Amino acid sequence: MQRSNLIFTLLGFGIWALGFNMGCGQQESATTTTTLPSAAGSITVSGSLYSGVVSATSVKAAGARALSSADTPISDYQVVAVGTEDKKVYFPDSKTDANGNFTISNLPSGESFYLEIIDSNQKFVAPVSFGVAGDAVVMAITNEAGGDTINLGKIAYDDAKGVAAPTTEVFASQLDEGSTARAKSAEDLVPVGAGNLGRGTGEAYFTGTLEDKVDEDDDGLPDIVDIDDDGDGKVDGLDSVPRRPGATETARNALCHSNTFANLPMNYENYPTYIGGSLNNSPINVRDNTILAIEVVMEPGNSPDLYSDVRIVEGPAWLETAKVSGSAALWKDSDYRLEKESSRWDIHVVPNGTPEAGDVLKFQVTKTSDGSKEYFISTLTFVFTDIPRLIAYSDSGSPATKEGVALNLLTYQAKGNKFEYTGNSVSFTFTAPKDDLGSYISGMNYYLDGINYYNASGGVIRSAGSIKITPDEVSHPAFGTVYKTTFTPTTEAFDSFKVDVKAQSPLSGGGNASQLINFRKI
Ligand SMILES: [Ca+2]
Ligand SMILES: [Ca+2]
Ligand SMILES: [Ca+2]
Known about the structure:
- This protein has 522 residues and is mainly beta.
- It has helices at 286-289, 409-414; strands at residues 7-9, 15-17, 33-35, 43-61, 64-73, 78-83, 89-90, 101-107, 112-118, 124-127, 131-133, 136-138, 141-142, 149-158, 163-166, 180-182, 255-267, 274-275, 278-279, 291-298, 307-314, 323-324, 339-340, 344-350, 360-367, 373-379, 390-395, 398-403, 419-421, 426-430, 445-454, 460-464, 467-469, 472-476, 480-487, 496-504, 512-521.
- Among the domains are: 38-197, no CATH class; 390-521, Immunoglobulin-like.
- It is built from 2 helices and 37 strands.
- Strands 17, 20, 22, 23, 24, 29, 31, 32, 33, 36 and 37 form an 11-stranded mixed beta sheet that branches.
- The longest helix has 6 residues, at 409-414.
- Bound molecules: calcium ion (3 copies).
C-alpha cells in the first residue's frame, strides 16, 4: 500500500492522511541516518566512560594536558564511532560494563572517527572532544601514525555541558586536526552543538558555508546525531532543506533512508483553545496522542523484497509500551517489526511513552539473498508539543469576530461539538504548532484537510480534497504571529462540516499537527 494512500480513521470521525510519499531524490525527513558497514577492519578504539567534569580550559602542566576529571564509571551506555570519510556508524562490541569499559573493534584503517555517547535510554547525550587546535575543538581521532589500537583511558562525560573528553589528552599524532568544531564561548573543549542536540540557535547558529563532510555545520555533531544539520535553527524534520543540497546520509546499497516523524491530530473538544473563558493551558498528552511513523525507504528501482525482515533492535523506553496505531497490540509483541509496503518498510505506532528529540532507534535489516544483517540508526529530530489552535473565526454573514470566550469548550459542546456560523464563507485565525522546546514553529506549510460535509443526522454527504493554503500572517497581542485564512464551503446543501487546520512540515514526508473542528451553518 502506498503511504500516500494510507488513510486512518481516527477518534470516531474524520479521516487523517499520515503524510506524503517521498522519493529518494528528495531530502529525507525527521531523522538522520547512516548504515553499518561490514565489520572487517583492524583498528580498535577503547576506553572507560565515567561521569565527571570537562575543563573549561585545557591546562598544560608537567607535560600532560588535563582535559577533564573523572568521578564514577558509567555502565550500560554506548560509545559509537562515526567515520569522517565514510560517514558510517560503528557500534561498540557491547554497552559499557560496570567499570565503564567499552571497545569498538574492527574499525577500518585510513579513517578518523568522531565518538558519540548514547545513554542507557537510547538517547544521544554527548559528543567526545579530544583537544584544541587554535580556537577550535578537535572532534576526531585517527590511527594514521600507526598502531591498531587507540586506548583513550578514562573519558569523563559532563552531563551539565553535554560533552565528554578524555581525562588526559591523546597523542598529538592521534588528533585529526582537520575535524574541528566551533567552541562555545569561555570553553576550550565544548563544541557549540553540545547540550542542544546541534540545534543552530544562539552561538550554535551557523553562518558559514556548508561543506561536504560528516559535520557540515562545524558544531561538533556529525549529521547522523545532529538534529539540525545545517545549523539554521530549524530541525531537520521541519526544515525544507535540512542539509547541503544533494547531500545524503544514507543512500547506500539499496536503501535510501529511514525516518521517524511525529503526527499529532487532535479534536477541538479534546484540546479546546478556551475553557471557562480562559485560555486552555493544559499541555497536550503527547505520549498518548502522537503517532510516530517509522520507515525505511528503498532507493528507486529497488524492491523492499530485497529484505526479508526489518525491525528495531534497540531504542528508547517507550518501545516497551508502544502500540501499533489503530490496534490494541503492543508493538513488542511483533518484535518491533516494520511492515513491507511497495516502496518501503514502515509502521505507525502510538508511543504511550515519552518520545523526545535525540531518541536513537537502531534498525536491523535482513537480506533475503543470504540472511546477512545490516544496521542503521535514526535520531528523532522533533516532537510536536502543541497543535495549531483556532483562536478566532468570523463569517461573511455576521460582523462580529468570535474569539476568546466565544471559543469556549462549553459553547462548542452545547452545539453538539460544533461552532456556528452564517453566510457563505468562514475565516479562521489560528496559531502555529509548538516544538519540543514549547516554541511556536515558523515556516510550516498549512492545509485545510480532512474536510467532510454532514447532513443533519451526521451522515457524511461528501468529503473534499485537501486544500493547501497561504494564510495571512497577523500579529496578535497574546499569541505573536498567527495565521488567517478564509474558507468557502461547498454550495451544496449541508448541515455542518469538519475541517482539520493542519500544519505540515515543509519537508516532504515530515510530520504534521492539526486541530479538527466542526462548524454548523445556521
Ligand atoms: Ca547542527
Ligand atoms: Ca553538525
Ligand atoms: Ca536546519
